[in-house]
Fold this sequence. Notes:
This protein is α/β, with parallel strands linked by helices. Helix content is about 45%, strand content about 20%. It is built from 3 helices and 5 strands, in the order ββαββαβα. The protein is globular.
Amino acid sequence: MSSALLILPPDLRHGNAASSLAQLQAQIRNSPDAEVEIQAGQLTDFDSSALAVLLGCRREALRLSKTLKFKQFPTKLRELAVLYGVSELLVESA
């Protein structure tokens, strides 16, 4: 099965979260693939808005009955997800 590959930008903070979310959701909607992979390996400068963006992507994928996989979370992003109690919603795929 092929999957669409979405890559988070290196900088994902409050100031660009809304535009990043809109762009990622559009890519999820426009992808013909039933599976979407979001890679966060390039993400270096972020705040809790990054979690909101990822959760928004998850909602969009669920709405469209698409499978969403998360990969390459930076350690600090994983820690932030645990802190905010959303880590079970953003489970990384191997």
